[in-house]
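Standup notes
- DV: blocked on the single-chain target, sequence here:
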Amino acid sequence: MDIAVYLPDELGARAKAAGLKFSALLRKAVTDELDRRQAIQRAREGVRVHRLAVYDDHADGFYDVDLVAAEIGYAENAKATAYLLDDGRVALYEDDNEGKLRIFENSADVGEDVLAGFGFAPREVVHVIHALGRRPTIEIGRRA
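- DV (later): unblocked, structure below
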């Protein structure tokens, strides 16, 4: 299939000077996007209602939340769960007797560092990031 793609003059000139292979770049970008959408669709097939006990600091007590979402990961040691809501938002819930719930408006904001902060081990992080249709990057060692 032939497709015309518009690039601003300056960007087109830079890309041509760099010898970029437009066809291969577009093919990879389209394939990656289709794979990402398919992973998210698979995750959404498991949508159900999850009743969560959430603690409210201001009221000094718990209340129940019926979260309509698919569970996309669980951190065994931290007792934390990652959920994908129907509208693409991501919820992270810690059931460590404190009932913390955090909703992320953009799934791109849920990265490896955020998941690690919720107690997800590297293998659990990989599972969640894949379910969000992305390729995870796990850092090993320290940066200088």
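- Follow-up: The mean pLDDT is 85.
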